[in-house]
Every structure is written in structure tokens, then in C-alpha cells.
Amino acid sequence: MITIIGLGPGSIKHLTLAAWEKLQQSNTVYLRTSRHPCVADLPATLRCQSFDDIYEAHEQFDDVYSEIAERVLEAARRDGEVVYAVPGDPLVGEASVGKIIERARAASINIDIIPGVSFVEPCLSLLGIDALGGLQILDALNVAAQYHPPINPSLPALLGQVYSPAVASDLKLTLMNQYPDEFLVKLIHSAGNADAQVESVPLYEIDRSRRIDIMTSLYLPPLGELSSFEALQNIIAHLRSPEGCPWDREQTHKSLRPFLIEEAYEVLESLDADDPEALCNEMGDLLLQILLHTQIAIDDGEFHMSDVLQHLNEKMIHRHPHVWGDVPATGDFGQLSQIWQDAKAAERADKDIEPESILDGIPIAAPALFVAQRYSARAAKVGFDWQEVAGVEAKFQEELAEVFSAKSDAERAKEIGDLIFVLVNWLRWLKVDDPESLLREINAKFYRRFTHVESQVEKAGKQFNEFTLDELDNWWREAKRLGL
Description:
It is a single chain. The chain is α/β, with parallel strands linked by helices. 52% of the residues lie in helices and 10% in strands. It is elongated and about 110 Å long. The mean pLDDT is 92.
């Protein structure tokens, strides 16, 4: 039998009556750590044996907790009954307890858990908040080990085990991927003790606190009611509900198609304009389309957002074996591209999808310049390409001659189409992988110069047709000299 006792977060006053009675009945108690305020007040007849030495023997906490679990099980096998005491509550932030329970069950050893007051309750008292207000409770060590915090920012969060400035430093870097640097948070020190203190600091300063120790926690207030992905999902679900908007309820995947395309192009426009504020707004509009399509799928019983995210997460991990797997990567972009393509091929093989052509998989509804570039690039990968750029230049001359030798406008138009495709290939040789963006830049340049001509016509107080082409062209050249 293994009895696991929670000692509470601080002084002996937080020890439950059940825990106290069990300790009085026992001869020996194994302590995860003797660094706990109530240890000095335990029954004088009780022999205390701590596992503090294990912390010095290992660099990884997982190894520490594994050895603690093994020692507790060994004692149970040897002595028949063991009392193991941990700070707080056994089932709140106690990794060693989880390992003991798992191994004890496998060994058919009975477990009795005597709950204790965790670090959460005194923190709530100091903060004056209700846990049922959506409080998220997390391990700071787990959050600090990630690149983006697994936290809903529209709800409050309490993070335990911020026990050192080094942990706080790693933690703030993760949190600042979601929260502003200046976001006001609260460090809670020695919750449950007489010297408990709540320290309000900007997020970027949490690792500068001089009071951080083994009993420090971090409280994150809600970032804002509408700051989370979940809040947006709720808004879209509301719009599609009987209590929502008639227009949104009537939409289908097909009816929304033009809006998806339009919003995507507006994102591209903000990128071309190098306008971060516009990009932020346009990305939101594009995300709205994704959420609307997903809610329609939910309403029609097709799939959920969790399916979308699961599929995407699995795809990103599978297609980066050099990050999450054991595939070595040199950093060469060509090699990375091949790793990606190999992963895609493996996915198709797993699904028994055999493409009829290497060109399959490129969306034919995409802009024609984009499709032309992808087609030529795919063909080049299997050797269907010129040996050197002189070959594509010669092909351009050949197609240009065919344009001028065409017998009709219709034939000439088709030949110009062939010429455009050759130009896309030529751009690929020139390392221009996005001819669509290149043409958008040319369009923007034409817009700037033509509007300059318009402004000069307006200043002259005349109409366009009152000027010769040479006069208009002089203003066009003036626009070029001005760098427009």
C-alpha cells in the first residue's frame, strides 16, 4: 500500500485533518522535498526521509521524478506500506505522483490519496478571483518549453512552478509570442504563508523579480474578451445560428467562393504595399472566410475545426522530418524542397492516391501565371527543360517570330499565349518564382505613372483627347524620372 499525502502549500495550518491523523499513525514519511514550511511542524515522533539528494544527481526533472517513483515503489515492496508526502495537493502539479500511480497499478500495489490544499486556493484568495471564471491552470515548465503558449488569452491563467529567474526568462519568451511585452501580470510569492506577496510587473520584467523562489506562481489576466480564436469561433457559430444573421445562415461553400478569392487578393495587396496595419486587418478578413466555411461544415455534419487543426498539425510535423524526425538537413533549400516533396509522396502512397501526372495537385483554378510557373517548374524537375538559359532565349525568339507570321488575329492571339508561357519559363531561369507578384508590381508602377499623367492633364484644365500622344508621353517620362 502506498499512501500519498498532500502537505498543502505553506504552513502546518493548511494540512488537512485526514493527513495529520495519517502522519501521527506513521513511523516514517518519505518527502519529495524537505524544503517545505510545514516540515518542521510535523509530529516529533515521525521519521522524515527526503528525496532532495535525487535533485542533485540528475539534470532533467523527468529523471528526478522517475527515480523518486522507483524508490517509493521499492519501499512499498520491502515494507508493505509507505507514506509519501508532497507539497500542495498530490494531483496538482506533482509529476512524481503520476509516475507512482502508473507504476503501482502495473505492479498491483494499492494507492490511497489523501488530498491537500494546492497552491491554487491560496493564490485565488490573494488575487480575489473565482476559478470558475474560466481559470486555466498550467505548469510553467511545460509552457516555457514551447514556442507558443497553449493558453486561451481571453481567459485568465495561473502558472505554477515559476521557481527561478531562468524559468521565468524562458517562460516570458514563450508568452510574448501571444501577449504584449508590456502586458501587466502578477507574480505570486509564498502563497499560503504569512509572507505571501503579489507583485504586479510588465510581462517582460518577470525574470527580474528578486523574490522568485520555489513557491512563485504567475497569474495572467484575460488579454481581452475578443482576443482568442475560440471567441471568433463562437461569434461565427452565433451568426450561423437561428438567433444570428439571416445572410450568414443562407451561405454555402459555393456562395462564399468569390469572397474567399477576393479576401486572398486583398491580403496580397497589403503585402505588396508593405502595410502591416492593413495586413493585420486583411488577414482577419481572410480568417473569417476560413471560419465561415468551417462552421458551414459543422452545421452540415462534414467536419469540425478540430479536424482541420488536427490534419494541419499532422501535415506540418510529417512534412518536416528534419525538425521533428531523424532526417538530417544541410539547410540547402533544394534539399528541403525535396524532403517536403518526399513527405507529400508518402502521404499519397498511404492514401493509395496515384497521380496520373506529375502536374497533378496544382490547383487549376489558381491564377494562370501561377499555374504556368508551377507546371514549368514541375516539368523541369524531371529533366524536361533547357540545358541552359540560352535555350529559353532562343525559344522566345522562335515564338516571337511565330506571333508576327500569324495569318489572323485569332492565330496571333494563340501565339502570344505561347510567348507568355515561354516568358514564365524565362523568369524561372532568372530565379523569379512568383511571376504573379512581378506582374502586380508592374501594374502598380503603371498605375503610379498613369495617375501622374492624369494629374498633369487635370492641372492643364483640358481633356485627354486635347493632347497629342507625344505630349502625354512626355509626362509619362517625367513620372519615370521622378521614380514613380
